[in-house]
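SEQUENCE WITH STRUCTURE:
===
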Amino acid sequence: MKFTGKVWKFGDNVNTDEILAARYLVTVDPEEMGQHLMEDIRPGFSGMVAPGDIIVAGENFGCGSSREHAPLAIKGAGISAVVAAGYARIFYRNAFNMGLPIFESPQAAAALEEGAEIEIDADTGTVTDLGSGEVYRSQPVPPFMQDLIRAGGLINYLTGQSVG
C-alpha cells in the first residue's frame, strides 16, 4: 500500500479542536467535516488540498479531546495519510479505527518541507521525498491493519463492508 501526495506542514501539538472545531461536530458526513479541516489555524485550508495530499506535523498530533471526527475530517478533505513526529495515543487509535493511515517519523517530520511531493510505502515504512530522493523511516503497517485501512475503518472491516 503506497500513498503519494503533496506535503502540508503543521507544527507540534495540533489538537483535535484545531483539526475540526467543536462547532462542526453536529454532522456525521466526513466530506462536510473535511470542508472545515484546520480552518481555525489555517483558514481556507480545505480549499487548497488536493485528493491524495499528505499532512506532515510535529509532536503530539491529535492531542486534546477524544473524538473520531478528527480523523474523519482529515479523510473527508481528501488527505491520504499523516506523517508526524508523534501522536496523542487516542488519536493514533482513532485514526486506524476510522481507516486513516498514519506514520510516525520524527526525521521525516523535521526534514520535509511544505509543498514537497512524497511517497509513503506502508509495507516497508519508508517515507521518500520524491524531489530530493531522501528516505526516512517509520514503522511498517502490518498487513491486517492495511486491510482495516482498505476497508475504510474498523466497523467496515468487522462487517465485511468496504469503502470505494
User: Anything to note?
Assistant: The chain has one domain: 2-156. Residues 89-97 form the longest helix (9 residues).
